[in-house]
Design a protein that fits this description.
The structure is a single chain. This protein has a single domain, classed as Hypothetical Protein Pfu-838710-001 (Beta Barrel). Helices cover 11% and strands 48% of the residues. It contains 3 helices and 12 strands; from the N terminus they run ββββββαββββαββα. β9 and β10 form a beta hairpin. The longest helix is centred in the middle third of the chain and has 8 residues. It is globular. It starts with a strand and ends in a 5-residue tail after the last helix.
């Protein structure tokens, strides 16, 4: 189960280059249900995603390079390219009414900086171990609009966008 919230951002975090970065390319074979192929650095995957906005099923299957490029040619719409920075959240904050222990929770921001034709789009995603924790999370000060429930920001929908 993938449980994540998505945000636009006000500004890039300071010293972005200090964080690990992945080069991602992905293409969509289907958008309902979502079936995607992805290259992340030198790893290749096929992913199935169920319906949902905050939470949805997700299954990843490994591919080899040849299979990835073969399937990518069969994809519909735009191939999405982006740089993903993985930024640890040192001390996440949660709503004061949230009473569960959050001491052992380790969270990261996955900051996606999209390449053309989607640039200058930048989306921050945070994955959570439960819906309760996701809903109690207080966004970081450099986050802007919460777009979790806006399906137009799903990569599968972006892949169908006409430029």
């Amino acid at each position: 189960m993938e449980i994540e919230r998505k945000f636009t951002i006000k500004k890039l975090p300071d010293q972005l280059e200090q964080y690990s970065c992945h080069i991602i390319e992905q293409a969509y074979l289907n958008t309902d249900p979502v079936v995607r192929v992805r290259r992340q650095d030198d790893a290749y995957y096929m992913t199935y995603k169920g319906k949902g906005l905050l939470a949805r099923e997700e299954y990843n299957l490994p591919l080899n390079k040849t299979s990835y490029y073969h399937l990518r040619e069969k994809a519909d719409g735009n191939v999405i390219s982006k740089r993903r920075y993985v930024i640890p959240i040192e001390q996440p904050t949660f709503a004061s009414e949230y009473k569960e222990s959050v001491d052992q929770i380790s969270l990261c921001v996955e900051l996606d900086i999209f390449e053309a034709p989607f640039a200058p789009l930048i989306i921050a995603e945070v994955e959570f171990p439960s819906k309760d924790i996701a809903n109690a999370f207080v966004p970081l000060d450099w986050f802007d609009q919460d777009i979790t429930n806006d399906p137009s920001y799903h990569n599968s929908n972006l892949s169908r966008r006409v430029f």
